[in-house]
Write a structure and sequence with these properties.
By secondary structure, the chain is α+β, with helices and mostly antiparallel strands. It folds into two domains: 72 residues, tRNA intron endonuclease, N-terminal domain (MutS, DNA mismatch repair protein, domain I, 3-Layer(aba) Sandwich); 78 residues, Trna Endonuclease, Chain: A, domain 1 (3-Layer(aba) Sandwich), CATH 3.40.1350.10. 32% of the residues lie in helices and 31% in strands. The chain contains five helices and eleven strands, in the order ββαββαββααβββαββ. Strands 3-4-2-1-5-6 form a six-stranded mixed sheet. A five-stranded mixed sheet has the order 7-8-9-10-11. The longest helix is centred in the middle third of the chain and has 13 residues. The termini are far apart.
Length: 176
């Protein structure tokens, strides 16, 4: 069986877009990649790189196809923490979780438990990726806890090391 040809997306500063059609819709139906807005699928930076690396899409900017390395350089200009976020995103997707942006919740990602589709139920976690070399103050930690508590989601901190391995810490509220 021949491999499916990637479909074309257009690079935007914060990800990519594709016209609604059979291939983008199939990717959406199978893995909930993208969000349909006004007849176009919009992909976050992390979704775009994940699909590009998995040969599902072609990313075009000014009639030039971008390689994964070229895309990463552009994404790092938009978000200096892009790589750390992407490592966590990719790790969770590879484990079968659906990962969506969570900017409106004040977090980097929201993650749905396995076999749960966005819209069918709420996300289980909000995720904050952090590189092991970065410092997280108690104030930062407290703010992340408040965000998770106010959104009624569990807090997951994804710590990325220099080898791009991820260790997850789930923080829970407990009543003594």
């Amino acid at each position: 069986m021949a491999a499916k040809k990637p479909f074309q997306t257009n690079f935007l500063g914060e990800g990519a877009t594709a016209e609604d059609g059979p291939k983008p819709r199939e990717i959406y139906e199978k893995g909930r990649f993208g969000e349909l807005v006004n007849g176009k699928f919009k992909y976050s930076l992390s979704e775009t790189l994940y699909l590009l690396e998995n040969n599902k899409i072609e990313v075009v900017e000014k009639n030039n196809s971008l390689s994964p390395d070229e895309f990463i350089k552009k994404a790092r200009r938009v978000d200096k923490n892009f790589w750390t976020k992407y490592v966590v995103f990719s790790n969770l997707r590879s484990k079968g979780y659906i990962v969506k942006t969570a900017l409106k919740f004040g977090a980097d990602f929201r993650v749905y438990d396995k076999d749960v589709q966005p819209g069918e139920d709420h996300a289980k976690w909000i995720v904050f990726p952090v590189h092991e070399s970065k410092t997280l103050t108690w104030h930062d930690f407290s703010a992340k806890n408040r965000v998770s508590h106010s959104t009624r989601k569990n807090l997951l901190i994804g710590v990325v090391d220099d080898e791009d391995d991820v260790t997850y810490y789930e923080i829970a509220w407990k009543k003594p």
